[in-house]
Each structure stands twice: as C-alpha cells, then as structure tokens.
Amino acid sequence: MKVWIDGAIVDAADARIPVLDHGLLYGDGVFEGIRAYGRAVFRLDDHLTRLATSARAIGLVLPKPLAEIREIVLGTLRALGRDDAYVRLVATRGVGALGVDPTTCPQAGLFCLAAEAVIYPPEKLADGLDLVTVSVRRPALDAVDPQVKSLNYLNNALAKQEAKARGADEALLLNAAGTVAEASVANVFAVSGRALATPPPTDGALAGITRRSVLEVARQQGFAPLERSLSRVDLLGADEVFLTGTGAGVVPVRSLDGQPIGAGEPGPAFARLRAAFLALTKTLGVPF
Q1: Average pLDDT of 37-49?
Q2: In 3-state terms, what secondary structure has residue 233?
Q3: Which of 65, 67, 94, 216 has its CA 20 to 30 A from that of 179?
Q4: Residue 71 in contact with residue 110, Cβ under 8 Å?
Q5: What is d(CA 192, CA 237) in angstroms, rounded to the nearest whole number?
Q6: Residues 6+ apart with CB under 8 A from 35
C-alpha cells in the first residue's frame, strides 16, 4: 500500500495523522472509493465531482483544487505500481480543539491510499455471496443523507459485523419503512425476466457510480432498468440478485437469509451485465 500525505508518498506504516484531527475524533470528513482497471482510473472525474459535492454538503473547504487532487490520485497509483487497484481518497475537517465544533479547524486534511483491490475472495465471485437481513436500519434521509459520503460509517460497520457474526458474507439493510436500502457497502439489484430493479436514493441507497454504470449498460444488453422500492420478498422472488460497488465491482448473490435466490448460483443476467461493465471500464478510464 502507498499513501500520499503531507505532500509525500510513503508506505502505509510510515503515514501519520494527528490525533486531534476531527476526522479521527468525530468522523468529520468525506471520502471517495475509486477503482483502477488496467492502469486506468475508472470515472475519476465523476468521483472527484462527488467528493466536492460531499464536501460542500458538510461545509468543508477542500485543501487543494480538484485538478491537484486528481494528480495526487494518479501519482499515488504510479507509486503503487499495480495495474488494478483500489484508491481511498479522504478529506478530513483537520486538526482542531477537543469538541465537535468544526470552526476550530482552520485547515482541512487530505490523504490518498492506493492498495491491491481485494474486497471478496475469488471463490465468492464465482459462487455468489450469502446475504442476511440485519437488524441495523438505514437512518432516515433527514438524519444522515447517504448521498454524502462521510466518514461516519458506523451504521455500515455494525451491519457488516452482524452479518459476519451470523455466518453470512454481506448484510442487507432495510430502511425504517422496511424496504431495501442497500448492502453494507454496495447497491442491490434484482433481476426478474428483463426487468432490472434497484432501490432509489430516496429509500436510503447511495447513488453509486458503479450502480449508475450498470444502469447505463443494462439497456444496451436488452434489459429494462428502473429504480423502484424493493422488499425483502422481492429479492427472494427474483430470478437473480447482485451487488455493485466501486471496490467489489459487480458481485452475484446466491442466497438471502438461508434461502436460495433463483437457482442459487450466479445467473446469465449477472454474467452479461458484469461483462458489459468490465468492457465499460476500458473506455472510461484515466491512464496513470
């Protein structure tokens, strides 16, 4: 792993952040997860635009222009030296006084991590994930808007912890109304015939960049993509279910709460859409 911090690229063991950084103390900051495929960064400018939007939403002034941050991402990847990689770009509120007051932080912090891209074991990509519906609920939009990619990921972490404790690979989070929001760190899709459905952001789903990419290629592949509310029963009755996320890409689901989804193995719709997505990564990448 390589880390850009304080103007230098160092090994992860040598990277340091101050203990009074409000990003560490209070989760006050924003981030982007970014993927590189074949020495090109997928939809980098879309990620940077979303980072800037998240920062504006919490009143955080980024410490560098986006053009400079773009070069930081590319430079960190060059230092890592891998064709395929995962990048975590983080902007914190910065160092301030003890207490949650952001106005005590005169300068935002910034660092960028680049590492090997391994989210799920290869056998899970081949066989499919096992999901469980967890007791943790997605907060209401008027409490914590999921469109802001903040450092407050306790909701996601607790959902993942519960899923792992119950022997599953991934968590399915519902919102307060009982409809599907997303997985702990991924969007959810359900396939029924030609219909391809995914929950809308108003149900608590992040409008993910991989999610958007799959919706774009789906119509070209003969599917009818749409955003609509989904229940747990909708997923159990679907022909196929899969997840999308920057880190994971497109990943099949084989079961929910111990019940098989469809045939209980990755299906043809998943295979077609994953192939179409991977083809898209070859055309929308910024070389490094």
Answers
A1: 97
A2: helix
A3: 216
A4: no
A5: 8
A6: 41, 42, 84, 85, 86, 87, 117, 246, 247, 249, 281
pLDDT score, position 235:
98
Contact predicate 230/106, CB 8 Å? no
Domain boundary, last residue among 115, 137, 158: 115
* Domain enclosing residue 233, as ranges: 122-281
If you average pLDDT over residues 170-195, what whole number do you get? Answer: 97
Using left for φ > 0, alpha for ψ between -120 and 50, and beta otherwise, residue 261 falls in: beta
Cα 52 from chain centroid (whole Å): 16
Task: Provide CB contacts within 8 A for 3, sequence distance 6+.
Answer: 9, 10, 11, 12, 14, 15, 76, 111, 112, 113, 114
pLDDT above 80: residue 228: yes
Residue 181 main-chain phi, psi, to 5 deg: -95, -65
In a shared domain, residues 240 and 213: yes
pLDDT (tens digit, 9 = 90+) per residue, 93-125? 999 999 999 999 999 999 999 999 877 888 888
Distance CA 281, CA 283 (A): 5
Which residues have a Cβ under 8 Å from the Cβ of 18 and sit 6 or more positions away?
24, 95
Are residue 178 and residue 243 in the same domain, yes or no?
Answer: yes
In a domain, residue 19? The reply is yes
67 and 21 in a single domain? The answer is: yes
Residue 273 reports pLDDT greater than 90: yes
Out of 149, 160, 164, 282, which one is annotated catalytic? 149
282 is catalytic: no
In a domain, 11, yes or no: yes
